[in-house]
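User: Can you predict the 3D structure for this chain?
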Amino acid sequence: MVERFPPPEQQKPPLGTGNTLFRLAGIGVLVVTAAVSLAYVGGYLDPHRLTPARLVDGLEHNNGVHPGFRRNHSKGVCVAGYFESNGNAAPFSSAEVFSPTRTPVEGRFALPTGNPYSPDSAVPLRSMALRFTQANGQQWRTGMNAMPVFPVSTPEAFYELMQAQAPDPATGKPDPAKPAAFFASHPESAAFLAWVKTAKPSASYATETYTSVNAFYLINAGGERQAVRWKMVPVDQPTVASPPPDAKDYLEPDLDGRLASGPLRWDLMITLAEPGDPVSDASKQWPGERRVVNAGTLVIDSTQPQVDGDCRDINFDPLVLPAGIAGSEDPLLAARSAAYAASYQRRTGEVDQLPKTTAPVSEKKS
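Assistant: Here is the predicted structure, written as structure tokens:
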């Protein structure tokens, strides 16, 4: 059984200016960085087919081992704020977070790579992970990415994709023919590949829309279940900036600069599935005409360095859910949960515990 509320993690080494992750050309690099987001959070896999350890081993093989850091989404920044519910989702879920109340939130923005020294331009994806802590003590944890759909539908296909993207020992780089062959045999990836063709690295975490990709169930007081997906949509369309010329690290400074002018806000938009919509397949999108409920506003008002900030101690397991929210039958959810639990166990034993500071880099209260 996976431990849902693990003890505080050990100190992570500071981010530095070490070797940068090489920039792959074409679809290959975009696909692998999106696909490895599968390993973001911890749970259960059938050990006779694929184990969490093998998934994490694959990440380490492809990205290198960086002691003390997360095996994926290893470069990021801690954030904090609150969620202001408007009560619109309360008819669908008994979760306290959806009642007309304010819930404290801790979270993390990150770059979906396994190398903490990657330049911010290395991949087109950005991620948002959040922990909502209800007044009754129950938590809701969620990991989201700035992409509309996942490339594959099963953990086994994801592992095959990782293998296709593994560096060739002779060159140190992936063989571009292997991912091409993989996608030729996995037509379910068509929607993802269509998105990849237009994806470009954003210059700001603040301008991105972050989606759950996987489906979940909302359960109301009467026991009725509603399949949903959700996304965080930036409020007031914040100004889109261009990456600074030749800059390696610009996402965190941009975030601090924006927070110096006031809090940042995202609306939590929940899409309601209809009968027949694919609930257990993250590679398939739902029709655009589905009903969408605005459940409230996420407000981010402060940051902390990830090496000693509050988010360092959080396992953003997507199956840590309060009463009123449940995971769907999507096999990727259990895989995400299990792989991150394995990653968590490794990184917490790699460095000595050091004094932890809590002073934020920037803080602006609303």
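The chain has one domain: 26-238+251-354. Residues 41 and 315 are 7 Å apart (CA to CA).
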